[in-house]
């Protein structure tokens, strides 16, 4: 009889950290149904809602990020960090996990650091093509680092690297035969092609501005548009001219990502690691507009990893208002280009990433 194992998973703040963490947890439960899991996130962030919905317990730390621009919020940062480090140490000691998995985000640093100081094995799931400062430091003592991009040995010990890809929600792996259901679900005209614009769980200001200012381009265009603006921006844009067009569907948050991708003929999005991993798996032509407001400009690096292989188109944040929609229209009108982009991006997908990472975590426990 195998002993019961305990696994702590920490990460969150955005969907790019939360959903991979949940996917890994689901995979662990499939492989070891007896495993006891505990999530640790940041109070007030989306993981505190999404993780319990997925069926897992979560504890929150009173932690927030350090603002790069001047902000009075930075005055409380040292106090929140110290209290989070203390609470993380207590949680690790009380739960006494066999391994701790970190997927990034505000809570991940204090918890992973506490585990390493307590001699508990850790696994890092690095989603981006450019590792952040925290993960580079944590990587020195981690047992395994699971990555989604080539050339990550510039940040981590090559002997610890496992090229797994990024875990994604299981529902998007099965899109076959869902297009009719998807068009009906979103109330779209079945005779039109569909542009999907994804701003991420928090929304993307530049993408929203580009669509709001794209009224003249869209008003007589024979396309459907699903505009995921983010809950934060929904009130601001729901009454704008573009959102009032019959063939434009404005939504704050998307629950059925499988149907969103099934409906899409071209996807316009930021270049977060999770979104890119999903695009690779669904094989959709994509226009990527990297956010400039991220550490080390890692979204541009994520996007270029695809663009250099002819697997996506790139529009800079500064050019988005002028070029984002025209680029999407150009792909819709050029069937050969749309086909080429889809065929080039699909081989980069890693549909089994969650299971591979879960197995790696269980290997650490067993050894």
Features:
single chain, 367 residues, Rossmann fold, 2 domains, 7-stranded parallel beta sheet, 6-stranded parallel beta sheet, globular
Topology of helices and strands:
Layout: E1 6-10, H1 15-31, E2 36-42, H2 47-53, E3 58-61, H3 77-95, E4 99-102, H4 108-117, E5 122-126, H5 133-139, E6 144-147, E7 161-163, H6 179-185, E8 193-198, H7 205-212, H8 215-218, E9 223-228, H9 231-237, H10 241-244, E10 248-251, H11 257-263, E11 266-269, H12 273-282, E12 286-288, H13 298-307, E13 313-314, H14 320-333, H15 335-345, H16 353-366
Parallel strand pairs: 1-2, 1-4, 2-3, 4-5, 5-6, 6-7, 8-9, 8-11, 9-10, 11-12, 12-13
Q: Structural class per helix/strand content? A: alpha/beta
Taking the sheet with the most strands, its summary is: 7 strands, parallel
- What is the H-and-E element order? EHEHEHEHEHEEHEHHEHHEHEHEHEHHH
The Cα radius of gyration reads 21 Å
Distance between the termini: 16 Å
Shape: globular
Percentage beta strand = 15-25%
- Which percent bin holds the helix content? 40-55%
Please give the number of β-strands: 13
The third-level CATH topology of the largest domain is Rossmann fold
| Count of alpha and pi helical runs | 16
């Amino acid at each position: 009889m195998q002993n019961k194992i305990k696994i702590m998973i920490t990460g969150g703040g955005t969907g790019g950290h939360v959903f991979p963490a949940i996917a890994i947890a689901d995979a662990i439960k499939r492989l070891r149904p007896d495993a006891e899991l505990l999530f640790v996130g940041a109070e007030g962030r989306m993981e505190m809602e999404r993780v319990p919905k997925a069926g897992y317990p979560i504890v929150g730390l009173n932690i927030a990020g350090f603002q790069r621009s001047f902000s009075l919020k930075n005055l409380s940062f040292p106090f929140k960090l110290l209290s989070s480090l203390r609470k993380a140490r207590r949680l690790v000691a009380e739960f006494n996990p066999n391994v701790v998995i970190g997927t990034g985000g505000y809570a991940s640093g204090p918890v992973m650091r506490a585990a390493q100081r307590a001699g508990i094995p850790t696994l890092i799931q690095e989603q981006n093509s450019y590792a952040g400062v925290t993960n580079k430091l944590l990587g020195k003592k981690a047992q395994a680092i699971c990555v989604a991009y080539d050339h990550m040995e510039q940040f981590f010990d090559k002997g610890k690297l496992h090229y797994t890809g990024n875990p994604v929600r299981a529902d998007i792996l099965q899109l076959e035969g869902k297009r009719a259901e998807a068009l009906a679900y979103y109330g779209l005209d079945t005779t039109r092609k569909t542009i999907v614009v994804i701003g991420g769980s928090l929304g993307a200001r530049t993408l929203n501005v580009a669509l709001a200012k794209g009224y003249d381009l869209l008003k007589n265009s024979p396309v459907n548009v699903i505009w995921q603006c983010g809950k934060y921006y929904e009130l601001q844009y729901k009454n704008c001219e573009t959102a009032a067009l019959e063939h434009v569907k404005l939504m704050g948050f998307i629950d059925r990502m499988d149907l969103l991708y099934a409906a899409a003929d071209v996807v316009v999005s930021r270049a977060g690691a999770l979104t890119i991993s999903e695009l690779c798996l669904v094989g959709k032509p994509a226009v990527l507009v990297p956010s400039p407001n991220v550490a080390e400009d890692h979204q541009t690096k994520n996007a270029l990893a695809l663009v250099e292989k002819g697997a996506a188109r790139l529009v800079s944040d500064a050019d988005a208002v002028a070029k984002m929609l025209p680029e999407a229209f150009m792909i819709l009108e050029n069937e050969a280009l749309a086909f080429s982009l889809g065929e080039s991006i699909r081989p980069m997908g890693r549909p089994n990433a969650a299971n591979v990472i879960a197995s790696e975590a269980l290997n650490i426990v067993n050894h």
